[in-house]
Amino acid sequence: SQTIHQWPATLVQPVGSPLSLECTVEGTSNPNLYWYRQAAGRGLQLLFYSVGIGQISSEVPQNLSASRPQDRQFILSSKKLLLSDSGFYLCAWSVFLRGGTEAFFGQGTRLTVV
Amino acid sequence: AQSVSQHNHHVILSEAASLELGCNYSYGGTVNLFWYVQYPGQHLQLLLKYFSGDPLVKGIKGFEAEFIKSKFSFNLRKPSVQWSDTAEYFCAVKPINQAGTALIFGKGTTLSVSS
After folding, report:
1. Angstrom distance (rounded) from CA A28 to CA B2
2. Chain B touched by A108 (CB under 8 Å)
């Protein structure tokens, strides 16, 4: 079966420090991968998505970047965190199966920038 | 750009009341449609999905949703809510036949059910 691992679960970082959140998927190949940020009252905001290794699409201009060095690995990064980067970050993967595309989510990372 | 609108930000109901949460999307082509639920302290879970066929789809825990193509809507319904349905509900749309598009979510609706 397919599983998605996202870590760490919680993270407290000072302003100006770098960030690296990692997400890996098991049990599937060539998935579409996503990074979302969830904020109260704003739902899930799509940050990045990737349809293949090295292929990243950015949905909103921001202080963050994403990379996909391997087929089933998706990394969210920042060189210098801002207070406004605090939030709940979700990794997800999707694959086309049984006539449609279904997405599956990781447990999320609660990032607090202090 | 595609977007998803959920009309209700916060819905408060008593147990046994009926529920309908609105969802509209802006995309003229073929779509896959989803409702996800997030219970307090838990991660997102798929409630139901529509790919094709019968526009009335049934999901887990007695939920159902109806796809009305002419209205670009995919409203979620439950005839009788329970206290355990208290959660945040997200509608999501995935355009198909369009390479490289992502799953787009609405802003969510918080449902509070009082016992």
Report:
1. 28
2. yes
